[in-house]
Specification:
The protein has a domain at 61-168: Immunoglobulin-like (Sandwich). Helices cover 0% and strands 31% of the residues. It is built from no helices and ten strands. Strand 7 (144-154) and strand 8 (157-168) form a beta hairpin. The N and C termini lie far apart (52 Å).
Length: 210
């Protein structure tokens, strides 16, 4: 949708992830050609989006699996946890290790639990999960970013993969309770109401007659 800028692109349609691969020789130059067909359809658009940094040989793939949060790249302080998922393609029969560099406004060990500077893939294992928790420091800091850079050694040199996720202060939860109601006689009934706003995730209201 229009974001306020006079220069924008809007695509209406569905996305399908397609992986293209080919045998290549280190040091050689290759070209890729893409072609798509679009029928006379005025409802949906057609296009090809190429993932940034995806033209690499057996590079490490990074992603996050966040158990609790507003969106899939934001982790709230003190709420749930995330797994940093590292996946290596190609031959996994031998053990391998990668170097991990951390950057961004978020500080390791202060804003989130520590991430090791080196990760080892045991022989036969293609995926490693690193648990991450956003630490509740009680300080309103706004949105902080964490930049994870993974460097792996390949036959043609080093491959670098970058992932960015965010840490946010938990949104404030507001509770509204209706006015007190007195039930004078046995068998009478009354409405009791409460509502919430803000926060995130599921909410549970407990009724207590004590």
């Amino acid at each position: 949708p229009q974001n306020g800028s006079p220069f924008y692109v809007q695509f209406d349609g569905f996305t399908v992830v397609i992986t293209a691969y080919a045998q290549v020789v280190c040091g050689e130059t290759y070209h890729i050609k893409l072609a798509i067909g679009d029928a006379s359809d005025t409802i949906l658009d057609s296009g090809v989006f190429i993932e940034a940094g995806s033209f690499q040989s057996n590079a490490i793939t990074l992603s996050t699996d966040i158990s609790s949060g507003g969106v899939d790249s934001v982790l709230y302080e003190g709420c749930g946890q995330a797994d940093l998922v590292m996946f290596r393609a190609g031959d996994v029969t031998l053990a391998d290790s990668v170097q991990v560099l951390l950057g961004g406004t978020g500080v390791s060990g202060v804003d989130y639990s520590g991430i090791p500077s080196q990760v080892v893939f045991p022989a036969g294992i293609d995926t490693v999960l690193i648990p991450i928790q956003a630490l509740a420091d009680g300080i309103q800091e706004g949105l902080e970013d964490v930049i994870v850079t993974v460097i792996s050694d390949g036959d043609c040199g080093q491959d670098t993969t970058i992932l960015v996720f965010y840490i946010a202060d938990p949104p404030e939860l507001f509770l509204t309770i209706g006015a007190d109601t007195t039930v004078a006689c046995p068998g009478d009934s009354a409405w009791v109401n409460a509502s919430t706003a803000g926060g995130f995730g599921q909410r549970f209201l407990d009724w207590n007659t004590g």
